[in-house]
Amino acid sequence: MLKKARKERLIWLDIMMTLMALALMSYFYYGIRSAALCGICVAVSLVAEIISLRLMGRHFKADDLTCTSDALIFALMLPACMDYSIAVIASVFAVVVAKNVFGGRKNMIFSPAAAAYVFVLTSWGSKLLMFPEPHSRLGVFEKPDTLTHSASYSFNISGKLDYTDFEVLLGNFSGPAGSVSVLLLVISAVILIFRGDISAGAFLGSIVGTGLFAFIAPVGSSREDSLSYSLVTNMVLFASVYIIADKRIAPKREYFAIFYGLFVAVFAYTLVLTTAKENAIVMVSVLFTPVALGFKNLEKKISLAEQEELVKETEAADETAQEITEEAIVNE
Amino acid sequence: MNERRSSIFDGVLGDNAVLSGLMVISPVIICGNTIKNAEALICAFSAITFLSVLIASFVPKKLPYTVKVIIYALISSIVYLPVKNAAEKFYPDSITRIGIYFPLLAVNSLIILQSEARFFKMKKPRMLASLTFYIIGFDAVMLLTAFIRELLAYGTIRSKMADVNTLISGLGEPFGGFILLGLMCGAYRKIRSIARKEKNTGSDLNVSGK
Fold first, then answer.
1. How many H helices and E strands in chain B?
2. Chain B residues touching A85 at Cβ < 8 A
């Protein structure tokens, strides 16, 4: 039990460290405003978590700090110029409605960050999908003069990206504050997989599903462009690491996790291909929670059946051993 | 064991049809996003439910349950027709917006299920009083939900502009209605359990004081 709790805290620490690196990158591109946005989301989530836990008659423990990583994930999916009031409302929504109403940390149904993102998308879609240009360093209360559509938007419409591969790799293109730094995301994914902090199966399933379908049914005319850009746009990489591969939601067995990731990715890619919906993978990850729950139920049934079988085998072995002993005694 | 005695006022607070029984929630969630819609639904629901249950209370009790339920549905369908005509005169826009959920009021669970399980077990005057409070309970929740949703989603109160800085347009959508109603149900149950606990503690103290 103690080991499990410690493990949970270590996972949170690892995830926070990788998220902080992404937040630092977003500070580099968009200035102090993106850092302030992250800070506000984290602070509001923490306060909301403490208050809602108190209302539920529980005490705030170190493990409940996971709300801060969820808040940071959510903040990094927002444009750097997003209104603070919207960020506050969505952070409260993530903690109270998406998490604690369903029973809290131990009964997670969907990623609070993804649920909050979908909530913002439905209520303030126009503000969520307009972004400042990279290197437009904004002050804490500063608003950019011009906003542009994201690179994902142009890719979904035209199948092309007007950026060099180096720019794409460094995340030097318009999009959510922290989820475009491709190189950093790849490094984070590798670290988190090797440290066992995220579900490797769900991550691989999601990446393979998107890649495979991007190659089979390309968004534009070029299969190579479709393959490479489909993975780096629409927050596919970010969502694969921090939302789909979230160990609290993804199935525990890697075999099931692969299929879960694959289903989400294929459905999201189909949505992008047919409707050009931006960041469809986040919406689909919320919609596919019944699939994750279904897999988890199946896992429980399988473990139960395995335990029963083990008990039966042990009993049979005991009986055989007893018979042999009795025979040996009779022979003597 | 504390057995709670039922009261005729239960329909408003103690056992609200929407917040406690989760009955007739679809019109609240889908159509209760503006006060005008809510008013149209409240008038129609109140008239249809009151008249239907009142007329249905004269149906012989000896008939099989299945037959009685069909008769209740027929009675409410007949009551629905003049109510719909009247509602179209007073709320022409709202009725169009409410769509299929308006005729569905005629077969709401308060008429079809609760009439048999609750109201027809009472004497007529008590039944009418209890039914009235159940209807008032529904109306209050409908109005409150519509007020909150209209204010926060569209920044208006009965179509008049209110000073709201940040609008949450998602609250005007059905999923927003689900979330808001869910939160209201949770808050209602929490408050009710606290109130009952306090009441029980008070009555226990009185008993021990004797």
1. 9, 2
2. 165-166
Q: Report how far residue A201's alpha carbon sits from residue A207's, in angstroms, rounded to the nearest whole number.
A: 10
Residues 6+ apart with CB under 8 A from A68: A16, A42, A45, A46
CA distances from B59 to A275, B74, B113, B140 (A): 55, 12, 15, 30
Q: How many CB pairs under 8 A join A and B?
A: 24
- Which candidate, B45, B1, B50, places its Cα nearest to that of B25? B45
What range defines the domain where residue B98 resides?
Answer: 2-209
Work out the minimum CA distance from B104 to partner chain A, whole angstroms.
Answer: 28
**Among all residues of chain A, which has the CA nearest to that of B173?**
A122
Contact B44, B102 (CB under 8 A): yes
Percent helix / strand / coil, chain B, rounded to 5: 70, 0, 25
H/E run at residue B156: strand B156-157
Residue scoring higher pLDDT (A293 or B145): B145
Which residues of chain B have a CB within 8 Å of the CB of A89? 166, 168
Q: Residue A69 has what pLDDT?
A: 94
A310 to chain B, closest Cα gap in Å: 43
Predicted model pTM: 0.83
Q: Which secondary structure element, helix H or strand E, spans residue B160, and what is its range? A: strand B160-161
Cβ of B183 within 8 Å of Cβ of A85? The answer is no
Separation between Cα atoms, residue B50 and residue B44, nearest integer Å: 10
Q: Chain-wide mean pLDDT for chain B?
A: 86
**Residues in chain B closer than 8 A to A101 (CB atoms):** 182-183, 186
Neighbours of A308 (CB within 10 A): 10
User: For residues B86 and B163, what is the distance between their CA atoms, to the nearest angstrom?
Assistant: 34
- Numbered residues of chain B with Cβ closer than 8 Å to any chain A Cβ: 165-171, 173, 175-176, 179, 182-183, 186
- Tokens at A51, concatenated: 């208050």
Phi, psi of B13 (to 5 degrees): -115, -50
pLDDT of residue A43: 97
Question: Average pLDDT in the B161-177 region?
Answer: 87
| pLDDT value of residue A290 | 84
Count the residues in chain A. Answer: 332
